Structure formats: structure tokens, C-alpha cells
Amino acid sequence: MASNLFSDETYEEKMERVEENEKQVIILTQLPEEIIEKILTSLSYNDLAEIRGVCQIFNKCCEQLLNSGFSKIDKLHAQIQKQVKSQLPRRESERRNHPLARHVDILSAIETRLSLLGMTYMRYIDMGLCCFIPGKVLDELLRILNTLKYPQQPPRAHEFLQELRDISSMAMEHFEEKIAPSLKTKMPAVTLPYPFSDCSSREQSPGPSVKVVTINDAGAFRGNSVRHELSRLTNQVRGLQANLQQQRKELTDTKVRSVEQRKKVVELERKLQIQGKTVLEHEQKLHSQHALISEQSQTISDLSKKILEFDQKFADVYSELTRLKGDSDSCLSSQSSNASILAACTNSSIDELGLESKEKRDSLKRRSLRDGSGELCKKQRKF
Q1: Cα separation of 203 and 210, whole Å?
Q2: Hey, CA dihedral for 136, 140, 141, 146, is it positive or negative?
Q3: CA nearest neighbour of 102 among 169, 150, 164
Q4: What's the whole-model pTM score?
Q5: Mean pLDDT of the 316-332 span
């Protein structure tokens, strides 16, 4: 019994401890919506679109954040576009060469894309039937706009907006094909006055043909639905105006390019005329050069004939010189033999003369020695 009581007490204590822990645990869905929205703002719009299926509270908060995100991006786009346009020059020709020209093209394309997205979703968003579903489109728009805040040169609009065009087109096609038909069945029944609605019945009064518009529900229609329809039409008009503005801009650019091309064509024609004149002058110079070349060739042929004649004369003179050289060599050999004989005779005579002169020198030396010794003897005798 004691063991049972002890075990019961421990079990009760454990249960109390579990209940206390459960009381201390904070459940996210039990927090106020403001705090949940503040927590969810740290996520990307794509993540918000994906976690809508967690629960109804998450769905409600994520819908509000997605709708507010679309409006924030629209305002951010208008702000950046205003700043960029304030920095552009007034002349259209100077704007094309400005460093912010690509910014303007990208912002114009984004404006068209925002108008198309608004025409697709805003009608149902205003009625409270759905929210702005494609969160990935909002992330891509936010990335592009944050890039355009800086004055750095972005890529070309076609390359820079390729991802945005692809995902936004797929999102709009999926919405129109899969989601919009089911939402149209949930739309409140409304009949608009002529000419906004085709559901109104037209009656002809007696007399002149006058179109009278009647409404099914006792001649009253809902103001909110009319406002939604008018807002949808306004968005369509804005989109058409944006497209028209884009087309006008492209048309003006095409006209300017055509004018520039015409100027280039005129300049090329002028250059061709100048080149034609220079070609004619060069042809005339070539003709004169051909005439000079023919004259020079004639003179060269005459000179070659004279050179041949001089070569023949030179050959004759050279043969005569060789003959004379042979004769002179024979004469020189005979003269050299005579010179050797004369040299031998002169050498013998010179030797004889040398012997005689040597004997004379010896006799003179002996005489001088004798005279010197006699004088010495006389001096000794005096002393």
C-alpha cells in the first residue's frame, strides 16, 4: 500500500509538472496578429506565399503582407522613376546617350509589367477573394528596384528583365487558367448600367428608339462592385496608356535612328563622289606613268645597244693590252739580266777600292803613333 501511495504521488507530481510546462510554452498562433506579422516580415515574399497553407492565421497575415508588398513595390517604383527622371536632361537626343538611359528603359518595362499584374489580380484583391499570390515576382521586382537605386550601369533591359518576364507571365497565365474561373463563381452578382454591363436588359419605349437600362434586383446595384469594376477599367486604361507611351517612345527612337541613317547615307554618298574623283585622278596619273614607262623603256633599249658596242670595244682594247703586257715582260727580263751583270762588276771594283783605302788608313795610323812617341821623348828630356 505504501508503495502504491508513493507511486500515485509521484505520478500526480509528474502531471502537475507537465501542466506547468505546458502553461509556460508559448504557441505562435496564440500571439497577437501584429506580432505574427512582425515576425513574418523577416521572410521573403516567396516564403510568405508558400507558408499560407499552414493555418488560417498564417494565411490571413501572409495575404496582408503580400498585398501590402505589391503596393510598396509600386510606390518604390514611382519614387525611383521620379528620381531618375529628375536627373535626365530635357533633350531627347541627350537622354539616349546619358548614363541613366538604361535605368529609364528598365523602369518603363517594369511599369508595364506592374500594370499587367494589377489588371490581373487587383480586381479580385479589391473584392477580397484572393491576395497577390506570386510572391517570387515581388522578390524579383524588389531585387531589380534595389539595383536601380545605385547609379551603376545595369545590363540591357532585355537581359536584366528576362527572369521577371518569365515568372510574371507564368504566374498570370496560371491565375487566368486555374484560379480565376473558380473565383468568378464566388463574385457577387452585380449588374452595371449600360454600357458597362452586358447583363442588363434593354427595353424600347414607345416613340423614338431610346435604350432604357433596367436592373434585375429592383433597380439598385452595389456601389462597391461598381467601384471595383471602374478600378479594373482604370487599371486597364493605365496599362494601355503605358503600352502606348512605350510604343510612342519606340517610334520616336525609330524615327531618330532613320534620320541618323539618312545622314550617314548622305555622308557615304558624298564620300563616294570624292572617292570617284580621286579614282579618276589616279587613272590619269596611271596613263601618264604608262607613257613615261614606254619612253624610259625605249631609252633603255638604246642604252643597252650602246653598252654592247662599248663591250666589244673594251674586249678589243683588253686583248691589245694583254699583248703589250707580254712584250713588256720580255723586255723587263732582258733588262734584269743586264742589271745583274753590272751589279757584279760594281761589287768587284768596290772591293778593290776598299782594300786600297784600308792600307792607306793603316799607314796613317802608324805615322801618327810615331809622331806621338817622339814628342813624349822630347818632353822627358827637357825635364
Answers
A1: 8
A2: positive
A3: 150
A4: 0.45
A5: 81
